[in-house]
Structures are given as C-alpha cells and as structure tokens.
## 1
Amino acid sequence: MSNTMEKQNILRTIDLYVNSFEKVLYEVDDIFLKGMENHNLVGDDIEKYKFWEWTQGVGLFGFWKLYQHTQDKRYLKTLNEYYDRQLKIGLPSKNVNTTAPLLAMSFLAEYEKREDYMEICKEWAEWMITSFPRTKEGGFQHLTSDTLNEQELWDDTLFMAVLFLANMGRILDKSEYKEEAKYQFLLHIKYLTDRKTGLWFHGFTFNGNHNFAEALWGRGNCWITAAIPEFIEMVECEESVKRFLTESLKSQVDALVKYQSADGMWHTLVDDKESYLEASATCGFAYGILKGVHLGLLGQEYVEYAKKAVAPILDYTDEEGILHQVSYGTPMGREDKDFYKNIELRPMPYGQALAILFMLEILKEEK
C-alpha cells in the first residue's frame, strides 16, 4: 500500500472511530455494575459509576488528543456534553479508576477556562496528595470502586491517576504535585519492572513482597509504554529523572520488539504465544513507541515495529468503527497467569481511544 493510500485509510478509520465513540462511551458495562451491587466500597449511588470509570477516562483522553490534532469543535462539544451530563448526576467516590476521567477534564478546564471543571480537578488533586491510601514507601495503593487492594501497586495506576496529578502540577505550577508524580513513577518502576526482560509485572504487594502470578500482561505493559512519554512531555524533569524514565522505557520497548508477532500484534501475555493476540495493548505499545520516537526518547529504528501494527488494527476495525479483539477490564491475576488468557473479548472505550492515539501518531510519520 502506498503512503498516500495508507494515510487515506487511516483518516477514514479515525472518522469511523469518531462516529462510534459516543455509542461505546455510553455502553452499559453490565458485568461491572452487577459486581458493584455487592462490592460498592463506599455504598453511594451506583448510577454515578455507570459512565465514570477508567474505561471512559482513557476514551475521553483519546478524544481530547483528537481535538488537539484537528481543532474540530465537534469534539469539544462531545467532551463538554459528557462532563456536564456527569456533573448533573454527581461524581462517584474518589479512587484510582474514577480519577481517570479527570485527565481529559483538566486539559479541557485549562483550555476553555472552565472554573467549574477546574475546581473539581483541584479538589481531586489535593485529595491525592493528602488522603490517597498509601502502601509502604508511600506508593499510591490501587484503590478501586469495588476493591481495596491493600498494600498493592498496579501498573495501571500511573496512567489512570498519576498522569492527572502531574498535569494539575503543570497547570497550577505546583511543585508538590509534580514531585509526587515523579516519585510514584520511580517507585512503581522499582517494584514492577521484571529485571529479566525489562517488561512490567501487573502488580506488587507489600503483603508478602511478591508480584502475584508474575504475569507480563499486555495492556498493563502498554499503560507504561504510553504513560512515560506522556509524563515526560507533561512535566519538566531533572536530567537524572528523565534519563531514568527514558532508560526504563527503552528497556521495555527492547523487550517488546522481541515478542511482537509476525503480523504486528502483541499477545495478551506478552511473552506467551499461546495467549490470544490483543488489540488494545497493541495500539498502546505502538502509540507509546511512536510518541517516544517523536519526543526523542527512542531512536528512529523503532518506528518500523509500530508501523507493523497498522494493518492488523485496521483489519480488526469494522465498518461501524468498532475495534474488536479488545480484552475486557482485567483485575489482578493473583495466582495463575492463565487467568489472563480467559478474559473475554469485547469492544471497550479504552480500545477505541488507544486506537485513535495510535492512528494520530502514525499520521505524524506520514507527513
């Protein structure tokens, strides 16, 4: 396929993702809501969680990036309508996953000078500093809407919550927020990096000091591939911190290219060819690699690996703009790696968002 044809195909696919975005954003997650009936930690109105969770948060961030790229006011309208709708319903309790929608909101509040949005962002950022449940060594415990996860660090936390805190540090020029965000990245690297491969384990618990099933889970790893470049772009770091984060990213990416399948995808367990190929992780890896290259964190030689993922992701996108082969939300595999192989596949907002982010970054290569 020529570069011109590929660019046209990518632009068409992004349009398809846009057309399906609201449908996926407001699709009821019956499995999550059923679980919340018995495991709602705070006991507040479940309706508040219905469309305000990490799944929507990642999707909204992708849509904000789409607006930044296109300056199409329709996308701003979609974002504002979402946040205004949810504020009328009321926000749920504060935890890692319910913080995720605030990342896009913080950008929007800054861009549009929306004080109502900004006041909420300020409240949640301050909560993170003063009241966020902590593990030993001051890590952000992976508290969710339905699980305490006491003394546990998860790789998801950096993308879902720490990026928001970092962005608020940038917006408000609050060194306390920025320094806390840096510390969380460094601490998570300390406990979640697999020193044998450079990939990341899904989690670590201080209750026993182990990495659970030691799963090198795909999407969990992709949150890191995406989060490190986003963070470095967001917050000006000391040379030593930037170097440390960059080397961690490079170590991970060097492992990823070894495990990429022949068709350009990655498996849901990165190092296990018997696990299924998974689209959201593939998009996240390709996006993070390209963004790392474009920021000068990774060498140009890595671009080819991200480009290999374009064709299969386009193939997994149907004519309604729905990305398939996306694994559903995944709790911790505590004892058995095979747990990850049995997670069902279904379209999700984060799959759509990661695909948008990937395709937007690919377009920078096509100029």
Note: The radius of gyration is 19 Å.
## 2
Amino acid sequence: MILVLRALGVGDLATAVPALRALRTAYPDRQLALATPAWLAPLVELVGGVDQLLDTPGLGAAGWPAPAPRLAVNLHGRGPQSHRMLAAAEPGRLLAFANPAAGFTDGPAWDETEHEVDRWCRLLAWYGIPADRADLALRRPPATGLPAGVTVLHPGSKIAAKRWPADRFAALADRLAARGHRVVLTGSADERPLATRVAAVAGLPAEAVLAGRTDLGELAGVVAYARVVVSGDTGVAHLATGFGTPSVVLFGPVPPTRWGPPPERPRHRVLWAGDGDWPSWDGVGSHPTLAALGVDEVSAAVDEVERVVRVSGAVAA
C-alpha cells in the first residue's frame, strides 16, 4: 500500500492533484490510500486514482490500517508532526521534506515561497518520480438538478483577511445581473448569513443563495457547469481551475505566485494589488491588498475572461 497524507481542505487537495496522479502512475499495481478528511470524499472521487480514503480530520494520533505501508508520502507539510504521524505507520520508506526535528534528513529543503502545486511536484521529483504540474483537471461530475450556466459569486473565506468587502460583492452582483447574468451566491453553512446579506443588498431573490444548501459534491457540480466564477483565494477558485470554468480570483494578502491558477491559462484571471506599499492592517475586515480592488476592475475582469472563452470557442469552431 502507498499511504499519502493530505489532511487539509478543498484547495489543498486540488493543488495536490498532480502529485497524487504521479504516485498513481509510478505505482500502478499498488493500493493508494489517501489520509484526508472524510467530507472531501466527493472531491477525491473527481480526482480519481485513489483506492481508499482514510478519514483523517487533522494531525494527531491515527489508527493506521495493517499491514504497514510499503511507502508513506507526506503531502501535508514540512513536519515534524506530520512526519511523526506517518512514521507511526512504520512504512518501508517515507518520502518527505527534510526535517531534522523529526529525525528525518532524507528529503529536499522546504521553500516557503514556491507555489503549492510546484512544492509537491518538486518533492516527488527529488525521489525520482516525475509529476506534471499542469495536470490539474478534475473529472466533471454528472449534471444534476442544480443550476447550470450560472455566474457564481463566492464572498466567503475561512480567513477573514481574504474576503473582498461584502458591499462590493453586492455591487458586482447587481451589475452582472443587470447584464443578463444569473447570479448565485455559494458558501458553507457558516457563510450563509454573509451570502444572504450580499443577495439582499444586490436585490437578488432568496433562491440565488446556495450557501449552506449544497454539499461539496453539489457545489462542485455548480462550479463545473457555471458560466463564470468570482471568488477570493479559496477552494472554489481551485475547483474552477480543475474544471476549466472561467474564473476571476481576487488575491490578498497571499500572492497568486503561491496559490494562483496557472498563469498561461487566460480563462482564469487573477487580480492582485499586493506589490504596492500598504499600511499595516489592524486585523479587522478585508486586508488592504483586497480592499484596493474596485468593482469596476473586477467587472472588467469578468468581461475579459468571457471574451477569452468566446474567442477560443470561435477559433475551435
């Protein structure tokens, strides 16, 4: 068995797809077990190649199944906790970044500045396993009764600093709706009040608020068949990249060089104002790098990605 640890969230799993596929290719006859939270199961299905999901909600003591894995791969972090957690499975070999604190020196050095996709591809390459950093595509889920062809606005984020101001999302929703977009607002159950507030200010009907009404599989379906997605640097943006859905991603305070979509894909537009000189942030509301992004700029970016799709479609025809 090949045991892989990635006990994180949606965006984290999506950025590990090239590494997971590389492991599947390198060990086609071995069972590949992914230690990740059980609620990510619908997304794991869309990645493909994983034989077993081991419910792992975070780092800590784990009841690893017997027999001991032939290989354990740390796609979670730099250690030492994650290294020790995998070492407890007594694998034949551990692939991980070097961490002397965990008694592990057999891997490459960690680079805090590199893109999350490149990080795990580089780790595997160090051990002689090639990975294609462009291999980010997710399987498109079956079409369901959920809305298709909608414009998805995702105003929330687990990290408050990464949220574009709600009043600007409302202004954008109003503007896009006036131009013929069927706007919906997505998010978790905890983000439903935020989405409801944005919809109310924008004058959208109650049924436009999907936040808290979809599970992960349903959310993936909405994104996969959407007209365009606008969000902050969060999991929904990575779903849009995986499905090739046109997207506008608002970055701050973390730069897109760390978590952004591939820059060579013009249907995914990144907005980032973080290269300037910004005042210190008081920890309240949106980070200044996000607050610097205006509605006009985001609206123009939506027009731009839609124009790219129209032109590419015309060329393909």
Note: The two ends are 46 Å apart (CA to CA).
## 3
Amino acid sequence: MSGPEEGRDPQSVGRFDVPQQVPAPDAEPARRNGHRPTAQAAPTPTAAPTPTNEVDAELPGGTGPAVADRPGDHWDSKVANGLAFLRRRLSGDYEVDEFGFDAELTDAVFHPLLRLLYRDWFRTEVSGVEHVPVDGPALVVGNHSGTVALDALILSAALHDKHPAHRYLRLLGADLVFRMPVVSELARKTGGTVACNPDAERLLGNGDLVGVFPEGFKGIGKLYADRYKLQRFGRGGFVSAALRTGTPIVPVAIVGGEEIYPMLADLKPLARLLKLPYFPVTPTFPLLGPLGMVPLPSKWLIEFCPPIPTAHLTDSADDPLVVFNLADQVRETIQQTLHTLLERRPDPFGP
C-alpha cells in the first residue's frame, strides 16, 4: 500500500496541506483570517480579550469572524424616502380629496417647514388640546392677527403634532386667498377651502376638524395699538354651520401673532390701488424691503378651550337670536382666554 504522501502531485501538497507546527508553550497561537486554529497543542491559558465591537464576534460554527450588519445610514434612508416621494409625485401615484387636500404633501413638505417656525422660532406652547375631539367633527374658532395670516398655518401644524390622533385642521379662507394663483394652490393642497357655509357643512358632515377665523381681514389688518382686541365676528355664519350639523364649537386663543409684524399704519390709497384689504407699514417693512418679511421671534401661546355643544340647538340654525348669542359666547370665551394668556406671557419676546 502506498503511504499517505505517495501518488500526490507535489504542487498540490504545497497548495493544500498546511504543515503542523507545535508552538512554544508561551507563544501566541497563529491566526488565519483572524481565527485561531482549533486543532493545536494547547498553549498556556490566557484571558480572552473582550470583544469591543461586532467585528470581534464569531459566526456560529467557528467558520470565521462575523462582521455584523451595521444600522442603516440615517441619510441613506432619507434619500431613499425622498426619491420614492418624488417618484410618486411625478407618476401621479397619490390621492387628493374632493377639495384638493393632499395629505402626503402636507406631511412631507408643509408641516416640516411650519414645525421649524412654531417650535424653534416662535417657541410655541400648546395647552388644552384634550378639548379637541379624538374623532368626529368639530369647529375650531380662533382669533386672527399678525398682518400676515401665519396664525392659521401655525395653528393647523401645532394641532396636528400635539393631538394624540394627529388630526388635520381644514381651514376656511377668504375669497382673496383663492383668487391668487400660487397661494390658491397651496391653500387647497394643505386642506383649505373657501369660507362659505356649504363647504363648511360638507367638511363637518365628513367628520373633519374645521378651522375658522370670524374676524377675517379686520383681525389681521388691525393696528398694533389694537392688539388682542377682538374685532366683530360678522353675522355668525360659522355658528349656523355648526348648528345645522350639531357640531361642537371649540374656541381657541392665540397669543404671539400680533408681534410678528407690528402694524403701525395702513396706507389705504396704496391698498386700493393694489386691490388689497390693507397695505401695512411695520418697523421693518417696507423700509428693509424683502428682509422686512422675516417675522419677529415673538413667544406664542395657544390654548384650546372646552367645547361648546350645539346638538341641542339644531332646530335653531336659522334663528338670528340664537346664532348671535352663541357667536357672542364664543367671542367672549376667546377674549377672556387672551387676557389670561397675556398675564402668563409678560414679555412678548421672552423665552
């Protein structure tokens, strides 16, 4: 019989057979690809180093060191999500409702921008959000101010973020908003619609949260000297919509909007020329040009008040006295809450 080495190709011996060497008792065992040989003379026992990361861990079966999968790169995930978002937008693979509301675009683009404003720039504190229903319709009625209607946008973003059900607020806007080419599209995409009873009742009938600011342009266009003094609520059309649908009314008071663009004067001739409800003069605009459009970093407080039920008054939707009294109750609730919030915030630009 031939010995174990007879008949072998000499080159194969050098290529596959590793000569066995007995290490010295105090010698460090040889490594192959980072793995200690298992069939060797036992060296003097030494304490094994504690693995410091995933690379030191071994795969089951002793086949070699395992390089564990590292957590996915945060920015890789963002880029992948962004590309998927663009693909859906370009292909039209997204949904809008009958009013043009685009929830995906609102969550991905508009709310992150507004979040920077209300959380970091205005340092907004929100309270009483438990008064907003978790589901079902409600009419959220707030005070209006600020020369530019940022308060409506800030309210919708803050409510969505702070509410446990992350509900969207469907804002009712003036006709002028929906006559402006770019602004109209943005308003529709974020859930806005024209401030009229038919649209309000349809939204409430669908179980949505609807936001309305009954002061209108009289609220956002008032002088800084009249700050936090509520203007007339019109003829109470918002109350009629709530009564016809039996929807609770949630008053909300917003402090902070009056200071972002303090309106010192209204150039009425120029406003008429430009067909605007007012032309503001603030400490920074038009003196500083486009730079004057940067809002001042005032401290904001938003408080939702307990809801006012209307289900027991559905038969009185056309009664002017009932409508007026209910509108006056909402207005007085907001005004008193504004006074309370102003006492909590003595410094308009404090922390």
Note: The chain has ten helices and nine strands.
## 4
Amino acid sequence: MAQTTPKYSNEFLSIGVGARALGMSNAMTSVVDDVTAAYWNPAALTDIEHRYQFAFQHAAYFAGVANYDYIGAAMAIDTDSHLGLAIIRLGIDDIPDTRLLFDDQGRIDYSRIQFFSSSDVAFILSYARGVSFIGGEDFIDGGGLTFGTSFKVVRRKIGPFATAWGFGLDLSAKYRINDWDFGLMLRDITTTFNAWSIDKEALRSSFSQTNNSLPSNTLELTLPKLIFGASRTFTLTDKVTMLASADLVFTFDGRRNVLVSSKLSSLDPQMGFEFGYENKFFLRMGFGNFQRVKDFSTGDASSETTFWSFQPNMGMGVKLEDFTIDYALTDIGNVAESPYSHVFSIRYSLEALPGIYARNKRRIKKKEAKDEN
C-alpha cells in the first residue's frame, strides 16, 4: 500500500467552526472559551462556565454547491476537567453520475442518471484538565495552566467509488496570567492518516475509455501543525472592552504560499479583534490568509509581477440569556462568483456552574496580603 503526504491533506479541518472565530480570521487558540474549544484548543474547555453547552453552525459555500456543518457539545466533569464533542461535515451532494447516460442503442436516457455525494466527516472527542503545580503557595488555587487532548476519527467518501478511514490525536495547552492568555495547539501530533479503499471495478470502464490509470489503495498522511496564540483584553470604558488576538500557524508539509515559507516549514499569521459592549453585543474583524498572487492584468508573460493579498473578515454577535447568536462575513478566497460567505452559528448554555468552576480562579495573580490585625 502506497503512502503519500500531500499538502492540504484533511484540509476541511482547517476551515474552522463558529462564526465568532471566522469573523476574527480564526485567531482563536488563546481566545476560545466555549464549546468550540473542542476544535480550536481542547485545553480551553475548562473555561466554560456552564455544566452543559451546545453549538450549531451551517454554511453554504460556492453558491450553495458545498455545505459545511458543525455541531458541538461540552460537559463539565468536575471542578478541574471538561469533556467536549464535535462533528464536522463538508459535503457536495446530488452529484450526477452520467456513466450510464447512454443506453444499449447509444441513445441518451436521462432516467439512467444516478446521484451521489462526496463528503468529509470528522468526529472529535476532547478532554481538558487544569493543573495546579504552576501556581504555588503565593498564587490563587488552581493555577493558570490547563492541558487538553483530542482524538479524531475521519470518514471520507466519494460516492460508491472510494472511501477512507482516518485517525489522529491533537494536544494543546492554555495559560492565563493577569489580562493575558496564551494558547498552544499541536494538531495531528501523531500524524493523522487516511486509509483509502478504491472500488476499481466501479471505475474500470470509465477510466479505460479515457485512457487513465486506475487509482490504487493509498495511505494518505497528514503531517503535524503547530499553532501558537496570544491575546489580551483591554477595558476601554466601564461598558466597552477590546480583545486583540494573534495566532502563528506553522505547517511542516513543504513550502506553502504564505507570508513566510521554506522547504522545512511555513508560517501563516492570523489576527483578530473583538469589541464588546456590556458583554452582550460584539463587533469583530480579522485579517489572515496572506498570499503572494500573480498579476495577469498586463497580459505580458515576460513582465509578470506579484503582489501580496490578504483575507479580511468581519462579524458580530449578541448574547440573549442562555443563547448566543454569532454572524460572520467571510471571504473564501475570491474563487467563487460571490466570494463572500454569510455564516451563522448558535450557542446554547445550560445550568451555570458555581463560582469554584469559574475560569478566573485559574488566572495567575498574587493573593492579597492578609491583615494580621
């Protein structure tokens, strides 16, 4: 069985979940504090201040040709640990199979057309736990460090022609000190693989007619990715706050078209901002996906020039008691007739936890001196 390590393997897992994150250009490794942490940084699951939390997102890309769906759930186990679950699907449905379009007499018979789907699905199970050995006696109990891990099962399918199963593991950490948050995410730390199984008999006739070679069963590897993030919240007025975050995404699958690239690794920065009013209304913006693009407007191949481009995003959100509704306007790369996509996500929180669960208990800061008198 052949082994390959292509760029962008399992890339549907790099799109992101939650309209809040998409509006901030995915700069969420140190920011996330809700159920979507199962995807962004499982160590941050301990920041959820409700016993149960659920989220749902649906997005249509390329004028509705592709559908992207996410559903997540999280549950508090005890004062120091959380459990999370996420299901992600990217699919193109109702693809016509025209291999049998002509009948035995060579006539077109549209009733012979069948339809199939091409889909990528991931199941993610995450666990997070806080540790206290960082704090010491002079700091608030609980410390400011949490660790998390995610186990992923990937199911990919191209109609009846090819299927794949994949497995992988992510590791992460989150650290808080005063108004700063730091996050570290090691995706596919075990090198996630997809074992493809090809139905050659279903493809043999079509491939022979077009003089193409039949594909063979393949083990496709997804190399590790490292993401480091930092963020800070600023209090502008009694009611207005500003959150600024930045992520550095390191990939190790060869040279990519990003801001900094080499044969060994590539670096893609992401930046996001969130303005909050009374912790109920939010306005967001972000910048990412920096790429060098060729300028073909001159029409002269001998004088080709390039320029840097980036992807801007924006969004907003509102908290309504136990519900949070987020919206993002995202640019998916100027490859569709309408390049901007509208994304909505909904989050529902159930049963607020007591203060001993609150994330501020893990914020590192000196205890106030006791009055001996």
Note: The mean pLDDT is 83.
